[in-house]
Write a structure and sequence with these properties.
Muramoyl-pentapeptide Carboxypeptidase, domain 2, globular, alpha+beta, 4-stranded antiparallel sheet, 17 helices
Length: 450
């Protein structure tokens, strides 16, 4: 495998590869976020998912190739292959496929290992169509960055997400759909001037027996990279070192398109409740109109991330070995998991206030959602750190509404029990870097249901 060089910035909690910010997320969040977008029949979900993948991969690989002009075509494709596997996305036989397709204007590319294919195959019901949109977008972005001409493609009905033995895509040279990539840039004037982009991170305000610096140093010495299948099994989940702006683009474009659709047809609110079962629950106490509806769905994806990823980490052997020896109180579980979060590329999280069993206030410097919004869309007119809100609420539910210290099985039934009880926790955002604040802040409290 060719060498991949992540650049970690300890002062901001940001990690880059080829000038693209990267974050760790697991198969549960990846699957849930994609399904949240796919399940809306009133937006162009296919375009949102494929184009975001093509854009971030194109920008990153274009930057790498500019920095390494000595690479020939085969070496460029080999680097993209290695990057894909290193990040845990699976295996893409780019070199072999392009060699076999030399001189052809259309060809097929197949893979027997895809993170998204395997994640989507976990659905309780069989999908009706292939869902490896990220894989397809990455291939399109890679080929355009490598060769300098437009390509297009589609997924076939042979897909791991459909529980077949491999995923096959059809790629065709030419077309106008992705030609705009050659003029694509990210980085707005708002990003360059926003105070939160250059803010300094303070030391921890709330003290505990947990040594955050030691945890970060220990975890930074562990290499989380794809195995022989290009996958990263860890903490009971499948991790990816993913493009932060992929998440940002798909989330915020979903929000924009759904908000526009609801503005044009308000009656969609009632129809969407049937597409998203979680809304049956949330409509008991949230006015699900306009922006509130899309925000609720994106926060719910964060709830599932917090439950599965953070719960998995706190149930892992690595937690027992590296962090449990520091823990003296139940509250130290929160301090410990926040220290781990600060190794994921999500920015720097700080517990600003903690009232046991009642309230948690989290402040985040350099949150990847806000930074991405500023890069691509400019200043926000509403709080947009949905992942922070969802994860923060799930942490309180894991520690106090449930009892992660007893190592319960992280089943869907347990998720329903602790996240949907009459006294479970909910987060409200009170400051946001994308709105011009120095940090993003969420306040987590118990919320009585109506």
């Amino acid at each position: 495998m060719m060498s991949i060089q992540p650049q970690s910035h300890s002062a901001t909690g940001v990690c880059d590869i080829d000038a693209q910010p990267m974050v760790f997320h697991c198969n549960h969040y990846n699957r849930t976020l994609q399904q949240t977008i796919e399940n809306c029949r009133h937006i162009d979900s296919r375009s949102i998912l494929i184009h975001a993948a093509a854009e971030v991969s194109f920008l990153g690989l274009k930057q790498h190739f500019l920095m390494h002009p000595e690479l020939n075509i085969t070496e460029r494709l080999a680097y993209a292959e290695a990057l894909y596997a290193y990040c845990g996305f699976g295996l893409l036989p780019l070199v072999a496929t392009l060699k076999a397709a030399q001189g052809q204007s259309a060809f097929k590319l197949s893979t027997a290992s895809s993170h998204y294919g395997q994640a989507l195959a976990l659905n309780f019901e069989k999908r009706r169509f292939a869902g490896e949109y990220f894989d397809l977008g990455f291939v399109i972005g890679t080929l355009m960055a490598t060769f300098g001409f437009a390509v297009q493609g589609r997924l076939t009905n042979e897909a791991l997400s459909l529980k077949h033995k491999q995923t096959t895509m059809e790629i065709e040279l030419g077309g106008e759909e992705f030609a705009y990539l050659f003029q694509l840039e990210s980085g707005t004037t708002a990003y360059l001037s926003a105070v939160g982009v250059s803010a300094e991170v303070p030391e921890r305000k709330v003290r505990s027996s947990v040594d955050e610096h030691a945890i970060i140093q220990t975890l930074s010495q562990i290499t989380f990279a794809g195995n022989q299948y290009g996958l990263i099994p860890a903490f009971g989940v499948q991790l990816t070192r993913h493009y932060a702006d992929y998440y940002n683009l798909v989330s915020f474009r979903f929000e924009q398109q759904l908000t526009q659709a609801l503005a044009q047809r308000p009656s969609l609110t009632d129809l969407l409740v049937y597409d998203y079962p979680a809304l049956f629950y949330y409509r008991q106490y949230i006015d699900l109109r306009g922006l509130s509806l899309s925000r609720t769905l994106l926060i719910e994806a964060g709830h599932i991330c917090g439950f599965n990823t953070m719960g998995g980490i706190m149930s892992s052997e690595a937690w027992d070995q590296k962090i449990m020896p520091m823990i003296q109180t139940r509250e130290d579980w929160l301090h410990g998991i926040i220290a781990v979060i600060n190794t994921l590329g999500w920015g720097v999280w700080r517990i600003s206030e903690l009232v046991p069993d009642e309230q948690l206030v989290i402040r985040v410097w350099h949150p990847y959602e806000s930074l991405g919004y500023l890069r691509w869309f400019g200043m926000a007119d509403h709080p947009i750190d949905y992942l922070v809100q969802g994860v923060a609420a799930s942490l309180m539910n894991l520690v106090y509404e449930g009892d992660i210290t007893e190592r319960p099985a992280l089943t869907p039934q347990y998720y329903q029990q602790i996240n949907r009880s009459s006294t479970s926790f909910w987060a409200e955002q009170s400051a946001c870097v994308a709105m011009g604040d120095e940090y993003s802040e969420v306040k987590v409290t118990r919320r009585k249901r109506q």
